[in-house]
Design goal:
It is a single chain. The chain has 1156 residues and is an alpha/beta fold. It has 41 helices and 36 strands. The longest helix is centred in the last third of the chain and has 29 residues.
Length: 1156
Amino acid sequence: MTRDLRSALTTRVLVADGGMGTMLQGYDLTMDDFQGLEGCNEVLNVTRPDVVGAIHAAYLDAGADLVETNTFGANLSALGEYDATERIAELAEAGARIARAAADAASTPDRSRYVLGSIGPGTKLPSLGHLPYATLRDAYQVQAEAMLAGGIDGFQIETSQDLLQAKAAVNGARRARAALGVNVPIFVNVTVEASGTMLLGSEIGAALTALEPLEIDAIGLNCGTGPTEMSEHLRHLSRHARIPLVCMPNAGLPELTPDGARYPMGPEEFVGYVAQYTSEFGLGLVGGCCGTTPAHIGALAAAVAGRPPAPRDPVRVSAVSSLYSEVPLRQELSYLSIGERTNANGSKAFREAMLAENWADCLDIAKQQSRGGAHLLDLCVDYVGRDGAADMAELAFRLGTGVSLPIMLDSTEPAVLQAGLERLGGRCVINSVNFEDGDGPDSRFAKAMPLVKEHGTAVVALTIDEEGQARTAEWKVRVADRLIADLTTKWGLEIGDIIVDCLTFPIATGQEETRRDALETIEAIRQVTSKYPGIHTTLGVSNVSFGLNPAARQVLNSVFLHECVEAGLDSGIVPAARIVPIARIPEEQRQVAEDLVYDRRTPDYDPLTRFLELFEGVTTTSTKEARAAELAALPVTERLQRRIVDGDAKGLGNDLDDALAAKDALAIINDDLLAGMKVVGELFGSGQMQLPFVLQSAEVMKMAVAHLEPHLDKADAAGKGTLVIATVKGDVHDIGKNLVDIILTNNGYTVVNLGIKQPVSAIIEAALVHNADAIGMSGLLVKSTVVMKDNLLELNNRGLGGFPVLLGGAALTRAFVEEDLNDLYQGEVRYARDAFEGLALMEKVMAVKSGVPGAALPEPRRRRVVAKPRANDPEAVDSTERSDVARDQDVPTPPFWGSRVVKGLKLAEVAGWLDERATFMGQWGLRGSPGGPTYEELVETEGRPRLRHWLDRVQTEALAEPAVVYGYWPCHSEGNTLILGDPDDPAREVTRFIWPRQSRDRRLCLADFFRDADEAAERGPDVIALQLVTMGSAVAQATTKLFEADAYRDYLELHGLSVQLTEALAEYWHARVRAELGLGGDGEVDAMIRDQAYRGSRYSFGYPACPDLADRAKLVTLLRPERIGVTLSEELQLHPEQSTDAIVVHHPEAKYFNAR
């Protein structure tokens, strides 16, 4: 019997196991089993090998060929969360031995069973600077060596969310193989989210480009989604990966139920997809992840196990990548443009910014090149007197996440190259290697090449040898031959990974020895590309024109580049702004430049002299002027559409007046302006336009219609249809409703916007008065879903089921609306996920009403699988028995008892706690898109500049009035109840909170985190902190004015910022409370915001641990927030909206949990 996993993978489809965590949930495990490390499944390898082994056996009995070790979290960052990093090797080896024993027990002479050593991503993202690459790599090596010692047959690096983390894991495993002298395969699975990218925005093409050169044995997908969402990513891998493919999906996307998340896909449906992909995409290894069980794996094995992998004919594309996307080294329609302005030796602006450590300016320069059409960025930080490695580390880290282009690391110093490579998740180019100091063991070449191999980079090979820079074609080709031979035979690079730089020198200096340099370079390119098919070439193109004025340089660069491309050049290090298309160069300029390049001198003619004459006093035209000229050259109808799409109002009035001379106002609106808005909708729907820019387009649309209004007949202005829309009773959230208003209004509809907290009677009255074509209802609160249901029943009772109803809001799901609510309503109800879906639905409503043949509303989407309610244990639900929360905790002494009011807080201090991601992405809608700007780019170009603008405006216009009321009360628990005492007489009860207890898991209840009556009597009462914060009412008034003034983008941004500033204020004051209580352990601000990196959790009413919103009234009674201008409505909502409240629990075990 052999255990050659590589051979098995190439001969038949292998079936792996399913979810380890899913199976563990079915066991009655105690905190002792976890040795107090709750949730650390890897500890079970030591404490409960019987459980882990039984799960392996269950999957093997079901038909799995492979099982994965229970070591997903046996890594530095995951165990670091438990302060248990010293146990990496112990837990990893123990997990491997358990799996090995189970696999051996299931193996037969005819069928081997294999063990994959599971390596998970941990909790840190090196691309974001959470942990250094080298630290992670070395820790992964420890884990890998331990698993090899335990008998694994291969590595499964899985659920990779950050390409730099994946590289660290791969190289840790490679080093472990080398250290132990074994050569087991390495598989890598990345996790692509439902958004279509990895967590940090990496597309699947970027992942393949970055990881395949690391000599891995298989690549694929796991976790993140079910199989349904994986097809296009697997299709890309099938077309381009030259190694076997893996697919291990979840059992569908998780669904939230009263009992928590569940995975809806059963074995039959799951296997239907995976079996299809196995055939269609040529998968070699299939299995399951979260939510999959032995039943799933048994069905999968019955369907695909043992069949030969479907044939594939992958086409390799030589490429490099950023963290986000890949870029082919050979462009189909142009040369590969390598931006050179991020070079400290070639760009004065970049050098000065770097010397001043003005990293933002450096990043802005990089972004400018991206906008200018560069495909790669040449990053050079080498400068006399500077620490090149430190500068490279700083800039590579910033450019790695802040720019969507791949990076060419420009240095011959190994330490500088290493610093860059260890901070860049994508596949880089190293620029460069050469034989200047030979190829011996101490040469730069010999020191740089191990970095090339470790990181799988492409490499620029300069035609320089021990004699110097090659000047003639023969010399250049001779050095190129030697370089290519060494790189391919000794170092294993493919021809397509090599970029030969044949070097170029200035030819306009007048020195005789330079006059043939361009000609020799062109001839060398021709010979090298002919001799080595698939090789790449590059040049520092602008060197050829050094010493000339900008206009002359642009022409000479362009002509020289054209001739080089004709000879076979496929990339150039040159700013796109310094190149013009050959067709645009005047004939004489082009001819003279060509004569200069080819040194066509005669006794009567020197092309250099003539070239200098041609460009005496000539300047270049600015890009901005060129864009304006391009727009002006368009027909007025196209110009208007472009203005709508670009959100460009400058010159709009003149264009509209020109258009009115040719056709009437209504035609302009319908034919030109609405056509532009249609494009906007399509771009938004495909993820290519961000919400702020959509609203900017809507503003221009509004201006255009206002300009045309005097030219419209009253009948023309009637609109395409009428929607009455409102936020339902008890709900004060209006941003989503108002966005629907904006989009529909600017697409020709009449919208009657009733505002917030509207009773059904007001909605019905408005619908009848305005002869509405549809009714829209919005709400963010869970309670609002009940109100919507009641409203629909009232419409039924009044016989008004003829109104189509559109529902939207964060608390709704499509299934709830289009199945549950649509079934009870006598008319039609549909869910609108966003404003553009609302627009699409109104288009359908009006088409049906107008009798358009074949018109109909979209079919309601119903649940494919009906969730079975999970029965709770009645005794557990009613239980008041304490959970296993630690007792005998010291109770901090607060600085005062009772409540206090705090005003006059500095905006800057509050803004220091702002969750930027929630602001930019969640509130402002800035999201990266495939083929467009990444999220990080949008943050730099739009998010942070706009944030600075708004913070300044909020400050100068006094729009923020941050204030806090908070305090401390003595308390003790009785069962599931927390009783608060009078600060002056703790024995006298002032209020009580009754909280639910979990019916499963640890059966936690918030009351468990406080001393009980006996403990309070013996040691004194416990303490609870209450807080309520507000940003005041001025900002709410300002947003209302912006909406009414049709300043849509400003409205969105100020409203979103005000909501996040309120949350920032809550975080800021939460930190103050923790400090006052003397609770240590605070982490970085971001970690505290996102990961509860502190002691003393903050709980808000209405959330899972304390879901009863009625408790808010008790908090308000104690804190009396009317002192800071906050009131509580009948619906238990705080006014103004920019207010929030919470309790703070000091117990060290108090973290977020769901009590339902």
